Amino acid sequence: MKPDLFEAPDYYNLDELLTEEHKMIRDAARSWVKRDVSPIIEQAAQDAKFPESIIPGLASIGAFGPYIPEEYGGAGLDQISYGLIMQEIERGDSGVRSTASVQSSLVMYPIWKYGSEEHRKKFLPKLASGEFMGSFGLTEPDHGSNPGGMTTNFKDAGDGENIILNGAKLWISNSPFCDVAVVWAKNEEGRIHGVIVERGMEGFSTPETHNKWSLRASATGELIFQDVKVPKSNILPGRSGLGAPLSCLDSARFGIAWGAIGAAMDCYDTALRYAKERIQFGKPIAAFQLQQKKLAEMITEITKAQLLAWRLGVLREEGKATSAQISMAKRNNVEMAVKIAREARQILGGMGITGEYSIMRHMMNLESVITYEGTHDIHLLITGLDITGENAFK
Amino acid sequence: MKPDLFEAPDYYNLDELLTEEHKMIRDAARSWVKRDVSPIIEQAAQDAKFPESIIPGLASIGAFGPYIPEEYGGAGLDQISYGLIMQEIERGDSGVRSTASVQSSLVMYPIWKYGSEEHRKKFLPKLASGEFMGSFGLTEPDHGSNPGGMTTNFKDAGDGENIILNGAKLWISNSPFCDVAVVWAKNEEGRIHGVIVERGMEGFSTPETHNKWSLRASATGELIFQDVKVPKSNILPGRSGLGAPLSCLDSARFGIAWGAIGAAMDCYDTALRYAKERIQFGKPIAAFQLQQKKLAEMITEITKAQLLAWRLGVLREEGKATSAQISMAKRNNVEMAVKIAREARQILGGMGITGEYSIMRHMMNLESVITYEGTHDIHLLITGLDITGENAFK
Amino acid sequence: MKPDLFEAPDYYNLDELLTEEHKMIRDAARSWVKRDVSPIIEQAAQDAKFPESIIPGLASIGAFGPYIPEEYGGAGLDQISYGLIMQEIERGDSGVRSTASVQSSLVMYPIWKYGSEEHRKKFLPKLASGEFMGSFGLTEPDHGSNPGGMTTNFKDAGDGENIILNGAKLWISNSPFCDVAVVWAKNEEGRIHGVIVERGMEGFSTPETHNKWSLRASATGELIFQDVKVPKSNILPGRSGLGAPLSCLDSARFGIAWGAIGAAMDCYDTALRYAKERIQFGKPIAAFQLQQKKLAEMITEITKAQLLAWRLGVLREEGKATSAQISMAKRNNVEMAVKIAREARQILGGMGITGEYSIMRHMMNLESVITYEGTHDIHLLITGLDITGENAFK
Amino acid sequence: MKPDLFEAPDYYNLDELLTEEHKMIRDAARSWVKRDVSPIIEQAAQDAKFPESIIPGLASIGAFGPYIPEEYGGAGLDQISYGLIMQEIERGDSGVRSTASVQSSLVMYPIWKYGSEEHRKKFLPKLASGEFMGSFGLTEPDHGSNPGGMTTNFKDAGDGENIILNGAKLWISNSPFCDVAVVWAKNEEGRIHGVIVERGMEGFSTPETHNKWSLRASATGELIFQDVKVPKSNILPGRSGLGAPLSCLDSARFGIAWGAIGAAMDCYDTALRYAKERIQFGKPIAAFQLQQKKLAEMITEITKAQLLAWRLGVLREEGKATSAQISMAKRNNVEMAVKIAREARQILGGMGITGEYSIMRHMMNLESVITYEGTHDIHLLITGLDITGENAFK
Predict the structure, then answer these.
(1) Could you give all domains of chain A from N- to C-terminal order, each with its CATH number?
(2) Which residues, numbered 123 to 182 in chain A, qualify as contacts with chain B under a Cβ-Cβ cut-off of 8 Å?
(3) Looking at CA atoms only, how far is residue D231 from chain C in angstroms?
(4) Is some CB atom of chain C closer than 8 A to the CB atom of A390?
(5) Closest CA to C168 of C127, C197, C139
(6) Which of D201, D154, D199 is nearest to D181 (CA)?
(7) What is the share, in percent, of chain A residues with pLDDT greater than 90?
(8) How far is B327 from B285, CA to CA, in rounded Å?
(9) Which metal ions or organic cofactors does this protein require, according to UniProt (chains A, B, C, D) (predicted)?
């Protein structure tokens, strides 16, 4: 018996599809979340403050670059391990998982894939250990769902060594405390490149976004570039064009598809437990048909989401998962989690609106998760395009 | 042109069903909310603090006892006026509307209906002006949906003049700052009576409930009675039994059915405006089918909810509305508002999670509204009982 | 007590909004449906055969031209009466209601509104009595949702008296037995005109559409025009352009919004009765929460649909109902009926798939009703356009 | 290229989870359905007539006892093969799949599992070849969802050799033409036993149920026993109690979970093809967001259902699938298919109600499938009981 673990539903014995290593990694993440995140996260959300004290723990469970090779400080794990770590973190809080997702898939991933060997050596180990925190600058105020329309740009500084970066990015997780930012901007020909911007560069500021009602335990902000001089050597050499940041989103969305299961599991587990203990009209409310309907449909949806994530993990590990397949899982699993959080909250009645239980915090967090890295509708249209061959974005 | 008013959808020309007085009362409430509530309410919610400064304003628009006769300080209005005032306040915030609902329907109403003439004269004018704030003690920790199971009780103090009250009530709006509480408790024969408890009575305390994620701009707390000595004359003489507090709930639920329309209107109005202004892929997102689907279904649902509320108002004014009819409108209209808030939030994308727009605050607030004064499922079973003749509560 | 009437839900006492005449007309229609339609309609549907024997009855209850002035043989009733008659007929069968809708709103209405006095005198009395049956030719195979794209056309015959009509219309109710058809076709300038085509004109044929799984008790077919010589005097002089047939659709859709309530009522009434009688696990299934959820939500939706139809009736009677308002009611009420039919069918378990009960027939019929006279999505986009000002059809 | 196959969606490359043999078996079934079932099935449904001519074909693809050992004439296949065969048949028609399900899981399975070696040798080969057709008598008129309440019973005939069987069974697939029936009845102690009743036994009749609107291409009827003398040797010796017939239902429900995917695939495939070809407003309707929403959500749901069925197949093959796990897949997958059929029908507009396309027939068929072998609500309560430990049936 492992008294320090959450109950995690596994209605279709999916653990049998995992290796021993997978389970070890998952259980380690789960224990850490239970011990170091759960006790403090509600207050962090109430205070709207990212709990920086958990950064070393995140590093220790491999949450920063799970699949980055060990030579660069990463955990060197497979995609399913990455997914499982995200799942466990999001049982705790979607904001904490977001911090890890950004660090791993939006900062370390492009540096690993598209950076020079020098970039890799300079940045990846520090990002893996949490010594450096990173952010990812793609979204702009007027181009949320259409990143190709970005206006952030750079031109040659004329000094042979630098570029001059101008523009602004919005809705950037980790921005307020990031040490480095992987920023996507257009060169003078309008071609998109990734640029590593470092804190301290003149003209680079990261104002925090306040009064969020979602992901309050993570920090969100802007990235503002006013004639920032950046060394040309900070441009990622490996790939240009919109495909580069989109490939990062693929990796992040894959993690979200797993993470959302964690949030859903925690809501389900909490609601089930509550329903079994809460007595009304002389019996546990879990004995009433209307509550069983909610709970039975939750576990059904979780089971399907788990299968989707598992299958996608196998495909991705084999290098075969398409962006459209990832979109389907991101869209499905986050919506699943949102719906479960809402139903779970109702099961708790009045208790469901307090910070004594995690459900409403999950519910609020998931409103960001269903929107970021491709809104619910954008993923729909990605699938639609994939199956019909017709572009309906415009 | 009235530049200070919100846009309010009226797709089926329902204003034609209102009198000039109705519209005047509504517009006055609307203007006040726009001027005095909207600018401050978001910060109050962020700070989780009831803005006491608005109490006089609430009194001025007739929100404290709209239908209480003028001789007792009330506004002496009809039921539709009452509904319209609640609608307008909830455009601002469900928490503020809750404060008004409690004061009107759960404190002033029972004193008016079941109190002695002395009670009426002593308490109603002060409650109407907001000099006194009241709370309503029915719900107990173990008896949320089944108030008849309450254990709060009183016995004769043996001094010929007093009773001794013991017990605890939970989820009590206005409790932390209430001057008086109408408390429902069982006498020694187990019969439920209403008792007016006044702040300052020994053994009476009102600890606040913290860390709510809903109705943060209103104050919620407990009512705790430890051997509180209350004059026998504070017992409401007019009616005993569970029917008495339930009749108060009828009045409050009627107000909620209207109030929820206000929250929904504000979400719809905000989302529509945003969708018309927000450009993506070269056109306003309001021009995309997926967004039109959300918006068109919102206005359809709002229109039906308005008709339901209007018809119920006529019936109630005629003294013919049954509890079951009220349950239907409360259940339908609050769920309508919850769904609209959720969809509206998605239309705003990332902006939807910030305090810059009211939508997510409404969404969070409505989680309480769908739960209190009879949960969504309890109202379902009330309708179910009414139409089938079969009791499925147990 | 009126033993020959169905039970009709009226949860919000809406009968009080009707006049005595309204109720008389409704009850007459109801009695006739109960007596003359219900006993034979199931077999007609099984046999996929329109029961022509009911034509005189339809005429007798005013179903052919309820609002056409008495001088032309119509019933001279108001719009709410028209709605109530449609409601009662559709309690029996949507196919029978369709027959009446077409006759009234798509044949008699345009002749009355846009025909010459001669047309009115020649056709309306016979159509009102059922001596003549009519059909309406607008939809074409390749232009279902976009009637303006029609290719049916006419040109001058060159004989000074006639036009030559060519083209084909599809999904035409009443076509196989119609005596006259109001056909919409483009003249040589591409302007749409209404033309009265009469059975027997050479080159005019009306092949029946077979193997329908919906509206099997009504006849559907094509209208085919191969060089049909039609007197110029058969052109409706009063209005040309797409607005003319669209105004007919407004009238028909208004009737459908009411009719759908009838189908829903019959499903609800049947399911409620069954649930109260059907014993499982020792009690009526109406006593189970899962069944109460279905039933309670049905009556809620019916009540709202009734209010919507009533309000629309008042507006239409006052000449103020817009096409967009009618679209909302058509879309809402038909979807409401479809959903209720589906849920009601489930309540009946295995019995729900047989012809012993009307529910599955209603469910199948409503699949046509949700599609014709503007599909569910087209009405959505009409509302969307109305509220956003953005055209999202294309 | 295999021109004779349907298009079958496989969005998550699930074919990789199948063996070559699985795919061969599936493709054989698919080809046969395409060639021998699709061309005739619509007319059979219109005529409400089971097409007996397809019986040999069903036998040839292994549809009668796919997992029954070859020594008894079965196909000796694994559970996933069984599932795939059911899936392919139901692409054609749920009624045909029902015929096969009953024969395999409700007649051959209990004879194989609980019959004597003599029973097996006498009946199984003939059932496998289709020479004999079987039916399964469990459901009674007053005990649909509660089979334990059955009243069909037998007593000792007193002649040392026979029992006397009395009672009636309802909703029995294949009944009108069955050669044998496996009937569940109570002995004098009230213990349930399986009894093989053979056509020709005196007092045994099988009247057909007419006027069904669902599964019209399969035959349904009653089994009536009036003092039927049955040899004692026809009692299944291997197991008594309600668990015996329930284990048969497990096997049948497993097949339904797969079969429903087939119906859904056919609806999706048809709707997608139609949407790509149907031009409105100048482009294929597949290019409109509202249609993409329908299609994208269909393929998402199909993919999850496939994963659920696959995982359940593995578990069942390993002998580890619980009844509750099977209930989840039956409930989920049939509801998935019902919803997809309904949405697909809407995509086809008017064409969707005709027999020219298979969709509405599927939609009607699935109304039976969602009800039989455990209604949608019963499976919900099975899951509810499993996860909460609370029985909410009563």
Answers:
(1) 14-133 (1.10.540.10), 135-234 (2.40.110.10), 243-388 (1.20.140.10)
(2) 139, 142-146, 170-171
(3) 32
(4) no
(5) C139
(6) D199
(7) 95
(8) 37
(9) FAD
